[in-house]
Amino acid sequence: MWAGQLGLLFNPGQDICVDERLVPFRGRCRFRQYIPNKPAKYGIKIWVACDVATSYAWTMQVYTGKQEGARLEVNQGRRVVLELTEELQGYGHTVTCDNFFTSYALAEELLRRKMALVGTIRRNKPELPPNQLQTRQRAILSSVFAFTKTHTAVSYVPKRGRNVLLLSTKHREPSVSEAEHKKPAIILDYNSCKGGVDNLDKTIEEGKMTAQIVVVIETRLITVREQKRREEVRGEKKQELHLKLPLLNVISVQAHTRGSDR
């Protein structure tokens, strides 16, 4: 499948973001999704692993919905992350994801693959200590850390009644910013990496890419406009983008060169 070929085109950097994106679509489709907090609301949901530095979609997985008669999938977020990053194991990448995906078990498995995890985590996870869940007597902007040999959890109270919880296997020190917000280093790192897929969405919607990849998945329901050529001025030497292959048989690539006024 075409998604399995995306990794052949690009070597991702150290930081990887895993998230979902919704390709707008209102036609008839068995696995069309309704996600009210997305701008399009209706469409095809795709799990994406992005290179944080460039927002390049390194690999994708189409969510085709719960199969008829099948049991409800348990630990779906864990499975998605492990499948999307399988080819990266052993290279020391860091995966950033939100609380739909993050779990202690996922962090453990990524460590076995020589990868780190940074992610928000839901308060109902049994591995979190009680003192990180209680915020009534906590000072605003305070942080409470918890450590194991390989994991670090932090609870941060940005304002009264709000508790931000994160799990990391990358950070081993209780570091807190000296800035006014006094955010833990884990949160600052998470904030700098979490937007990989969102930036991909913006790039696609705003039409800023200089290459357009049109992908048709079997029923031709999905058109994904994929970016990976930076703007080039005619006559200038092309910038190396670490591309390994010029094209894929299963992907139609239309390359467009922008004018110098863009």
Automatic annotation (TrEMBL):
Family matches, as Pfam families: DDE_Tnp_1_7 (PF13843)
Alphabetical list of InterPro entries matching this protein: PGBD (IPR029526)
Superkingdom per UniProt: Eukaryota
Ranges for domain PiggyBac transposable element-derived protein: 9-206
Matches recorded under PANTHER family: DUAL SPECIFICITY PHOSPHATASE 26, PIGGYBAC TRANSPOSABLE ELEMENT-DERIVED PROTEIN 4
Protein name: PiggyBac transposable element-derived protein domain-containing protein
Organism: Aldrovandia affinis
